[in-house]
Amino acid sequence: MSFYTDFIQKSPLFNNPAECRDQSMLEPGFGAAVKAIIAEAAAMGITLMVTETFRSQARQQQLFRQGATQLNGLTPATIGVHHFGLAADFCKIIDGKASWAGDWSFLRDLADKHGLVSGVDWGQPNVKHSFIDPDHVQGCTVAQQSLLFAGTWYPGPPVTNVS
Q1: Residue 145: strand, helix, or coil
Q2: What are the pLDDT digits (tens) for 42-82?
Q3: Which parts of 34-74 are beta strand (E)?
């Protein structure tokens, strides 16, 4: 049992095609790291807002059809870890407005500090990546994704009581 099977799959949001910002849909350890990143960015004078946490397969398909998701030979069902509560996207709040402009290296550095993977280098800084997602962090490496999609790996201890 895991947070995914005990909480996410049972959530009314599981099949919802709408954008989700609900941080309770994040795996608890990953969610704690996201909160720490937001606090540390604030201490640096950068206001971050989470723009997406959980993503249903229906929403993933929708984004794929809109061209927002790059597949690079993968299928929509085997890309991204938002569906598992292991990814978050952010925007910066500048003059009261959402912005994705400018340098996001601070987020890569904070993700690394908290053991997360940044969409800047996908945990592989020496590899040239065809897809860069600087406002994205996730709680598993690219190598772990195939195990996650196969259902043979999920982070954290087994969930015994989710309220």
Answers
A1: helix
A2: 999 999 999 999 999 888 888 777 765 554 444 445 567 99
A3: 48-52
- Confirm whether 111 is domain-assigned: yes
Q: Which two tokens stand for residue 140?
A: 């598993």
Return d(Cα 77, Cα 90) in angstroms, integer: 23
Backbone CA torsion sign across 36, 40, 43, 46: negative
* DSSP reduced 3-state for 47: coil
Domain at 100, CATH number: 3.30.1380.10
**Beta carbons of 60 and 118 less than 8 angstroms apart:** no
Report the alpha-carbon distance of residue 151 to residue 72 in Å, rounded: 22
d(CA 11, CA 89): 20
Distance CA 114, CA 137 (A): 10
> Any idea which residue has 């890569």 for tokens?
108
Taken in order 21, 22, 26, 29, is the CA torsion positive or negative? positive
Q: Which domain holds residue 86?
A: 3-150
